[in-house]
Structures are given as C-alpha cells and as structure tokens.
Design brief:
The chain has 674 residues and is α/β, with parallel strands linked by helices. The protein is 32% helix and 21% strand. It contains 25 helices and 24 strands. An eight-stranded mixed sheet has the order 18-19-20-15-21-22-24-23, with helices on both faces. A seven-stranded mixed sheet has the order 7-8-9-3-10-11-12, sandwiched between helices. Strands 1, 2, 4, 5 and 6 form a five-stranded antiparallel sheet that branches. α4 (112-123) packs parallel to α7 (160-173). The chain starts with 11 loop residues before the first strand and ends in a 10-residue tail after the last helix.
Length: 674
C-alpha cells in the first residue's frame, strides 16, 4: 500500500499479503498482494463475490489457514504483534471472530451458556458464576429474548437468527480489540440486523474496537464502515472511504456490484444488471486485469499489469479516467413473449388458515401445561394467475409455515384452500402436487449430492409423467434451457456447480411438472448480489413466459420491492398489512411495516437509531399482537381488542386501531426528499 494511504498508528496493518492453496490443477492463488489498514476504532468493509478471497483474509489474520497453505506478506501486524507468528496467542482474547455459519461454529453437545462463558473464564479469568451473569447480560444487550432461558438451551433449539446473535456474543465475550465479522448478519431480519449494527457502532466508540466487516450486503457496509476495499479474484480492485467507493464507484467491478443490487427505494426499476460470466481460474497466472473477460469497458491495455492508481481513492484500472462517469450497462428487456396475457383471475385462495405447534416435552403436554405456539393465526391470502406476492416479516413470524400450509405440506388446524376454482383437500391430490411446487432456500441440502443434474431433473419429470423413455432427456434439456444453463450441465454433480447454478437447478426441478404456482422460500438470500440479480431476472422472465404465480418469501425488502406485485406483511402469525408494493412502501402503513422499512440498510441513507427490539413475550390472545413494541400505541384498546381491518386504498388493507389519517401523517421511511 502506498505511503499516502498508510494509516498512522494502525491497529491492523497488512501489506502485500499473498495466499495460495495446493489443488489438483496446481497452486490456487487465493490472495495476490492485498494491502489493508484499520485504525483503532475504525471499521473497514471488505466486499466482493464468493471466491474473491474475503474469508481467506479473515483466516490469515487468525492463523487458521492450515499447514498446506502458502502465505507471505511484507507486513501482517496487529498492535505491534506479527500475526504470522503470534496469531494463535491473540485469537479469542485480542482478536474476536464471528463466522457466517454459526450452526457449524456452535457445539451441539454444550449449552449456549457453557460456550458463551468459556472465553470469559479462559481469557479474562472470571469465575463461573459471574461469567454466567455477564453472559446473560450480553445476550440481553444483543436483543435475545429470554436470555436466561437461552443460556440453558442448546444450539438446535435456537433459530438461525438467534444462533447468529449468540455467535456475536461469544466473539465479544473476551473483550477483544479487533473484531473480524464474516457475513455476520446474513441470517438476521432487518430489525435485528439494525440492532446489531447499532450495537457494534456503539462498541467501537466506547471501547475503540476496530472491525473488519466481510459482507455482500452493501447497505450494511455503507451503514457501519468508514472505508471499503473491493476484492476481485484475490486482488484489490478499489479502495477508499465508504462514501467515495459506494457513492461514486470508479472501478468497473464495483459499478457492476452496485448495478446488480435491488433497492427498495426504487421498486420495479426495470431489470437488474448481473455481471456476466464467473471468476477466473485462479490456478492460472494472469498478469493483466483478471476482470477483463467480464468487464463491459475492457479495451486494449487491459491485458497489461494494473497498478492501484490514486491517493485517497485507489483504483486498479488503467481506464479509470475514461469510465469513471460511465454506468454499468443493463441488459435489454427480453422480447415480448408469444403467450397471450393471462387474465388476472384468482388462482389460489387461502381462507382462515391456522396451525399450532406443540411446545415443551411430552409430560408437559400430558399435564395440559403446554399450549404450544400458534404459528399461523387464521390467515387469508389470495394469489392471482401470473402474480408475484411478496411475504415479509421477521424470523419466526410464520412466513415459511404459511407457504407450506398453502402447499398442503403441513396439516392446517383450521381453514380452507382453493386452487384453480376447486377445493384442495388436506391430503393433496397428485394433480395439485404437479401444479404447485416449491423452491427451497438452501440448494446444497435440497439437491442430492450423489445424483447428476440430469438424474435430479429426470426423476422429477418421470414422477409427474411429463415424459417417458427417450423423451425424458429432451425434457431435461428444455428445463436447462428455461433456467439458462448449458445442456452439458446434465452430467455434472451439485458440488461442481456454483451457488447460483445450484439454485437454478432447484428452480428447474420445481418447473419440471409445469406448475402454475411456486413458493420461493428465501430462494435468493444466500446468493451474491450479482448471482442474485441473475436469478431474480430469471424468475421474472419465467413469470412472463409461463404465467407462473409466486409466493415469494424473503426478509430482504429490496428483493421484494423489485419482484413483487403485491406485498403481505406478517407478524406473529397474522397478516398486518397487504397491498400493492408501491402502496405498502408509502404512508399510510402499519406501525410494524414502518419499523421494518426504517430498519433497511440503504446506500446513501444516514445512520439512525436502532428499532425497538422484540420483547420475546408471547402475544396476548386478544388485542393487537404488535402492541408491546408499537411506538404509536393508543392505549388499553390495543391490548384488549383485535384491531380492525382498514382499507387504505384499492386492495390495500391495514389491520390497526390507529386511524388512517394518523397513519398517513407519519414521515416517509426514506425521510424528506433530498
């Protein structure tokens, strides 16, 4: 890193860090001369696609690369310590880490309290009883409901978001000076995410805590970080202040990442702009720009070595002055499909669906002491032919459960379901199974690793009698064409595909029966922004080509704003607001919708206070379920009477006691116009 960019008295100082791993094809160059610096109390964001080397930086700082890795650096220092030699001694005490997959990081055989108190006892010498009290307080500070109960729980008893908060608490337990955060909020709702970001911001001020944040969520990076470094295929593409890099990007790769991002402040803003192609083969040395094969602005000279240019804002591109003011090109809209526009008739109608899950052990149930959890509480929802209905809400609100009820994958306690004008019985018919399918969130666990893509898709084709004999292969080819994958992928196994390609296979399998309705359950939440953009464009194209209707479940309001026609907002098993996406994003809206929208990390948005945390209390059987958290609560009426449904406009309903005139008077969630 040039002297002009070197941070004086840096807490973390990395210069010319290179890491290579042995592979069958030779040495894989995961990092190539990467330089970073973080001052005390500073936060650096590290962004880039999967495979860019972000997590390798984290593992290098922790000394966890393994003996096979080849690592070199001119300087790898933390507070005067050489991390090449001393990382194991600093890990856990001076340097804390939050891994992305806390389900794998937490020990399933130990209670949460045992794991949370271990760093305090080991590194701080705190006696067990006091460590237990501190651990309980730390969980409460991170917004964990019923922290004393969670301390006695095991990892399998917690939701994904809860486990993530426990992971952050464990990293903070040793009171570190440097915190490494590897995708720390991937599994969190926007409200919990906002609370965690506010807490981290407060910790870095109070304790001068330095942080390295690895994330593909650029809104989070803009919210928390002072500076940003963009990695591509192991090399530094761009580096500078957050405002410079994210608000006025100069490297083509950064421009591409931002163009692929769906933004809730721009609903239905046309097609997203995914970056074509994939990462280069890192086992083959390329002295030139390793992004040039995917770059929309590549020209003569890109095959030559690229040096970081600039002083405060550094860019590794020889054409930086030529393309600095250019926008990343958006692919053209596909030609109008030949299918005649379908009348928007009701396709699926759910009336008063509800389900209760049992709680406690079998003894509690026998004694009548466990009423369980009312996961979905008399929900009614309709979806029209070719319509996309977005379903948003916090973890545990019942979104996925409602999706499974609407597919008859779970037995409803009450309610009816109609599809295509006919009733769907609790034991769904084979015809309904053919016409209604699901795309799961995690393609890694939903695809059989022992079967090729052709076998996976062919099995679905045969199961629903869509083709037999030699015609199955032709149908598999048609499905691969639909999801824009080469036909040669039929011979590949899931482990030979990228995350986005596996998700496309999952979509193709769901389309094998030629369904009319798909439930997409967090189908793009684990994808990089570029891959996510390509999948969202694909889903929208399939809707237009085939007339498929979607129930699109997501905690990402930007994704919902981009793809959905209507939005349903769910809280503790109840739909509190429903309407066209443009109406839901503007006042009047339900106080809970307002809370969700105000929590969205948005590039260019000023930092604001964290939202009201969940109390963790079970909602009363009467009254408004959101009353305990509502900043606009009217009084006892909200606790005792079920809120009425008010019509805020055509097809826009809000379940709330507050008059519409007062709800309409609240400020817009984006704030006053600039």
């Amino acid at each position: 890193m040039p002297d002009a960019l070197t941070v004086k008295n840096a807490a973390l100082d990395i210069e010319a860090l290179s890491v290579a791993y042995p592979s069958r094809g030779g040495w894989l160059q995961a990092l190539d001369n990467v330089s970073l610096a973080i001052p005390p109390g500073g936060v650096l964001g590290l962004v880039g696609e999967s495979g860019s080397g972000k997590s390798t930086v984290v593992l290098a700082l922790l000394g966890l690369l393994g003996p096979a890795a080849r690592i070199s650096a001119q300087r790898l220092n933390f507070d005067g310590h050489d991390l090449l030699r001393e990382a194991p001694m600093l890990r856990g005490r001076r340097i804390g880490v939050v891994f992305q997959d806390t389900a794998a990081a937490l020990n399933p055989a130990l209670t949460i309290g045992s794991q949370l108190t271990e760093p305090m006892r080991l590194h701080l010498g705190i006696e067990p009883r006091l460590a237990w009290e501190r651990g309980t307080d730390l969980l409460a500070e991170l917004g964990v409901p019923r922290p004393a109960h969670v301390m006695r729980s095991y990892a399998h008893q917690l939701s994904g978001g809860m486990k993530q908060r426990v992971g952050i608490a464990t990293a903070l337990a040793g009171e570190p000076d440097l915190l490494l955060l590897d995708e720390p909020t991937t599994a969190l709702d926007v409200t919990i995410e906002a609370q965690i970001l506010s807490l981290l911001d407060d910790l870095r001020v109070r304790r001068s805590l330095s942080m390295l944040l690895v994330s593909h969520n650029l809104g989070i990076v803009d919210r928390l970080c002072d500076s940003v470094s963009v990695l591509y295929a192991g090399r530094m593409a761009e580096s500078g202040t957050t405002r410079a890099v994210l608000h006025r990007p100069r490297h083509p790769y950064t421009k591409g990442l931002l163009a692929a991002l769906p933004r809730p402040d721009r609903p239905h803003a046309g097609r997203l702009a995914p970056i074509p192609g994939g990462l280069p083969d890192l086992t083959k040395s390329d002295p030139g720009c390793n992004f040039r094969s995917r770059c929309a602005f590549s020209a003569a000279g890109c095959e030559q070595p690229q040096a970081l240019r600039g002083v405060v804002h550094q860019v590794s591109c020889h054409r930086v002055d030529d393309v600095a003011d250019e926008s990343w090109p958006v692919e053209a809209e596909p030609p109008a499909n030949s299918i005649a526009p379908r009348a928007r008739l009701p396709l699926l109608q759910a009336e008063s669906l509800s389900i209760r899950f049992g709680g406690g052990g079998w003894i509690s149930r026998m004694l009548g002491k466990s009423a369980g959890v009312l996961a979905v509480d008399h929900v009614s929802l309709s979806i029209r032919t070719g319509e996309v209905v977005g379903l948003v809400g916090e973890s545990g609100c019942g979104k996925s459960t409602l999706g499974r009820l609407m597919l008859r994958l779970l037995p409803a306690r009450t309610g009816t379901l109609n599809f295509g004008g006919g009733a769907v019985e609790p034991e769904a018919s084979r015809d309904f199974r053919r016409r209604a399918q699901i795309v799961f969130q995690n393609s890694d666990t939903s695809l059989n690793p022992r079967q090729t893509v052709g076998t996976i898709l062919g099995r679905a084709v045969r199961w629903f009698d869509m083709a037999t004999g030699a015609a199955v292969a032709a149908e598999v080819d048609r499905l691969l064409d639909l999801v824009r994958l080469p036909r040669s992928y039929a011979t590949r196994y899931p482990h030979q595909l990228s995350g986005g390609e596996k998700q496309r296979v999952g979509i193709a399998r769901a389309l094998a029966s030629r369904p009319e309705f798909l439930v997409c359950d967090e189908a793009v939440s684990a994808l990089d922004v570029s891959v996510q953009a390509a999948v969202l464009n694909l889903l929208r194209d399939l809707r237009d080509e085939l007339g498929v209707a979607y129930l699109f479940i997501s905690h990402d309001i930007g994704v919902i704003a981009h793809i959905a026609d209507r939005v349903a907002v769910m809280y503790q098993g109840t739909i509190v607001e429903e309407g066209p996406v443009d109406d839901v994003l503007h006042p009047p809206y339900h106080p809970y919708t307002e809370l969700l929208l105000s929590s969205v990390p948005l590039i260019g948005r000023e930092r604001r206070d964290s939202p009201a945390p969940s109390t963790g209390a079970v909602a009363a059987s009467q009254g408004c379920k959101f009353a305990a958290r509502c900043a606009r609560k009217l009084g006892p009426v909200c606790d005792t009477l079920a809120p009425p449904v008010q019509q805020a406009g055509p097809d826009h309903a809000i379940r709330c006691h507050i008059p519409l005139s007062e709800l309409a008077a609240v400020p817009h969630w984006l704030g006053p116009p600039a």
